[in-house]
Amino acid sequence: MLTAPPPHNNRSNKQCILLVDDSPEEQRRVLDLLRPYYRTIVAFNGEQGYQRALASQPDLILMDVRMPKTDGYSACRLLKADPQTRDIPVIFLSSAHSPDERVEGLSVGGVDYVTKPYVAEEILARIRIHLDLSWRIGSAAPGVQDERARNPNEIMVTAAKQLIAQHLQAPLPLAEIARRIGTYEKKLLQTFRTQTGLTVFGFIREERIRHACHLLEKTDMSILDIADQVGFQRAANFATAFRERMGMTPSAYRLSLRKDMPDAD
């Protein structure tokens, strides 16, 4: 028998859940489940879900994965790239149940992943857990609201940068980057250059060298391993690219850092 989730901190108003799913039948099923306990709004694809999250600031989002136009992963990337929505917990609720798909859902920022068909009591329990965690985190460390006017192009580029950084070792094709953030190649190219002054591939080169500098400074990894970590198949190609950008080889860069370190007492 289902029981109502306990109120959080004695708040009288129902918390708001945004349900993003392209299936009217699935929407009705979830709405019937949630209606006694939560205020629920709906969206039919990832793009609409992102826009409604901005407008309504829900307490939690239930997100399907396979949807037309913008899928759930792409929508989640945009949500997590936007300061106004990045702290809203996203639970994926999907029939996509392969291990790779579940890992992808968590890697793009989802807090949980539930596969269909699901047990009603489990959905309510997971929602209750993540709402409570979100409330506790927000109460313990309230953030400063970003009051800047939201720039959709800036959000798109931020999401693209985050995606690129996650795949430095094996860079994604441009079309795949665009698809995963819910846009198309031409728009991504134009927006990226306008926002950053770089092409997408120029940014990938810069990010590779930036990450390589970090690894050279903070780790004892070999040059060969660092080259592989940042997406170069050959150490010689890595050394050439690094020297062109930094004016010295990776080995010389690491040596210069160690020379500048104060002697330990």
Task: Describe the structure in your own words.
- This protein is α/β, with parallel strands linked by helices.
- It folds into 2 domains: 16-140, Rossmann fold; 152-260, Arc Repressor Mutant, subunit A (Orthogonal Bundle).
- Helices cover 55% and strands 9% of the residues.
- The chain has 12 helices and 5 strands.
- The chain has helices at 24-34, 46-56, 72-81, 99-107, 120-140, 152-166, 174-180, 185-196, 200-218, 223-229, 235-246, 250-260, and strands at residues 16-20, 39-43, 60-63, 90-94, 112-115.
- A 5-stranded parallel beta sheet has the order 2-1-3-4-5, with helices on both faces.
- Helix 3 links the parallel strand 3 (60-63) and strand 4 (90-94).
- Helix 6 crosses helix 8 and helix 9 (200-218) crosses helix 12 (250-260).
- The longest helix has 21 residues, at 120-140.
- It is elongated and about 65 Å long.
- Mean pLDDT is 88; it is low at 7-12.
Summarize this, please?
With 265 residues, the protein is an alpha/beta fold. The chain contains twelve helices and five strands.
The name of the CATH topology of the largest domain is Rossmann fold
| Adjacency order of strands in the biggest sheet | 2-1-3-4-5
Q: By CATH's scheme, which homologous superfamily of the largest domain applies?
A: Response regulator
Number of alpha- plus pi-helical segments: 12
What integer is the average pLDDT?
88
Measured distance between first and last alpha carbons: 66 Å
Question: How many domain units?
Answer: 2
Helix share bin: 40-55%
CATH architecture designation of the largest domain: 3-Layer(aba) Sandwich
The run of helices and strands is EHEHEHEHEHHHHHHHH
Report the portion of residues in β strands. 5-15%
- The low-confidence parts are 7-12
Largest sheet: 5 strands, parallel
Overall shape: it is elongated
- How would you classify the helix and strand content by structural class? alpha/beta
- Say how many strands there are: 5
Rounded to an integer in angstroms, the radius of gyration calculated over CA atoms is 22 Å
Q: Look at the structure and give the CATH class of the largest domain.
A: Alpha Beta
